[in-house]
Amino acid sequence: MRFQRVSVVSLGYAMPPHVISSDSIEVRLAPVYERLGLQPGRLELMTGIRARRAFDEGAMPSSVATAAGRAALERVPELRSRIGCVIHASVCRDFLEPASANLVHDALELPKQAAVFDVSNACLGVANGMLIVANMIELGQIDAGLVVSGEIGKPLLDATIESLLADERLTRRSIKGAFASLTIGSGAAAVLLARRDLVPEDRDHRLIGASLLAATQHNALCRGGESGAAVNMNTDAEALLHAGLDLAAENWAAFVEETEFGVPDRVVTHQVGKAHHALLCERLGLLASSAYVSFDRLGNIGSAALPMSLALAVEEGFVARGHRVALLGIGSGLSSIMLAVKW
Question: Is residue 147, in this structure, part of any structural domain at all?
C-alpha cells in the first residue's frame, strides 16, 4: 500500500523509572540455576539484554500510554482539535471492557468526534494502529489520529520467576519455554499521524508506504494469557526466531517492490535480542550499524518496542531529517508489517 497524504508528525514515550538487571533476575532464580546446573550470566549472554525497566507498582497501561500521548501532543498542540481517531494498541490493557483507549481519550480531553477503540495484535499492535489511522487520513475521513501503547511487563516477569521456583519437575529442556518471558520489559509510546498539508514543514515525516504479511500456521509458537491469578507465556523461542526470519524475508521482498524505497538509511525493528537483531540484518542484507538497538537496556517491550525505539533514535540523532527509515514490525501469530518513512 502507498500513501501520499500522511505524515508521522510526532512521537512520545514514557520511560519507566525502575531498572531490573538480568543479573538481579538470576539472583532470584539462584535455586533453579543450582538445581539445573546453569551458569550465572546466561540470560545476558544469550539475549544481549543487560536490563529491562518497570513502572511504579499499580501503574496501568492507559495511564502510561496517556503520558506518552501527552508528550507527542505537546510538540504539535495545534493538531489536538483535529484528532479523529484514538487507538490503544498494547498487549496490556486496563480491562477487557471498556476499551483502554477510552481512558486515554478522556485523560487527554480529545475531541468527542474521534473514533475511540483498542487494537490488539501482540507486538505488532502499534504498527496495525498506524496503518488504520493512515488509511483513514488517506481516505479523507479524518485529519489526524493518535496511536498509543502502554506495556506493563513486570507482572509477567514476576509470575514467570515464581512459577520456575515452584516447579520441582523443571528441566533444562522445559525451562526454555519460559526463557522469553524473562526478557520482557515495560514502556509506553505514542505516534501522532496527520494530513501532510496540516503539518509544519519541519515536522512533515512522510509515510511513503507499507507492506504486510501473515504466516498464521505458526500461531502456537508463542501463546500468553492468564492461569488463575497469574499471567503466563510459553514460547518456543528458537522456532519462533526462524519462522519470524522467514516471514520477514518474504515481506521484505514485497516491501521493497511496493514502496520502491531502495536501501534504507536507518532501520528500526521490533526489539527481541541480539540473535534476532543480527540474523534479521544478515537475512535482509542490511548493515547492522544502520539498525537502532534498544533491547540491551529495555528488553522486549511488546507493542511499545518499535515506536519507543523510533522516538529514542530520533531523540539521540540516530534518525535525522532526510533519512529514509524502514520500520520493521513483527508479532506472534505470526504477522509482519513494514513501513517506509521519509524523515
Answer: no
From 57, 97, 109, 201, active-site residue: 97
Q: Hunting for cell 513486570 — which residue is that?
A: 154
Q: How high is the pLDDT of residue 73? A: 98
Whether 97 is catalytic is yes
CATH number of the domain to which 312 belongs: 3.40.47.10
Instruction: Name the active-site residue from 85, 92, 123, 222.
Output: 123
User: How many structural domains is the chain composed of?
Assistant: 1
What mean pLDDT comes out for the span 14-26?
98
Contact 299, 49 (CB under 8 A): yes
Q: How many Å is the Cα radius of gyration of the chain?
A: 19
* The C-alpha cell that represents 154 in the structure block: 513486570
Average pLDDT of the segment spanning 12-24: 98
- Rounded Cα–Cα distance for residues 235 and 175 (Å): 10
Residue 264 forms part of a structural domain: yes
Cα 100 vs. chain centroid, distance in angstroms?
17
The answer on pLDDT for 231 being more than 80 is no
Residue 25 covered by a domain = no
Q: How many other C-beta atoms are found inside a 10 Å radius of the C-beta of residue 239?
A: 13
Q: Is the separation of the CB atoms in 123 and 303 below 8 Å?
A: yes
Q: What is the pLDDT of residue 51?
A: 98
- Angle at the Cα of 134 (from 302 to 264), degrees rounded to 5? 70
Residues 6+ apart with CB under 8 A from 148: 65, 66, 68, 69, 86, 87, 88, 89, 90, 101, 104, 188, 189, 190, 191
Q: Residue 219 sits in which domain range?
A: 203-342
- Which residues, other chains included, contact 143 with Cβ-Cβ below 8 Å and sequence gap of 6+? 79, 82, 83, 84, 137, 194, 195, 198
In sequence order, what are the beta bridge partners of 250? none
Examine the residue annotation and report whether 44 is marked as an active-site residue of this protein: no
Provide the whole-model pTM.
Answer: 0.95
The H or E element spanning position 27 is: helix 22-28
Answer whether residue 183 is part of any domain: no
Q: What is the pLDDT of residues 112-163, one digit of tens each?
A: 999 999 999 999 999 999 999 999 999 999 999 999 999 999 999 999 999 9
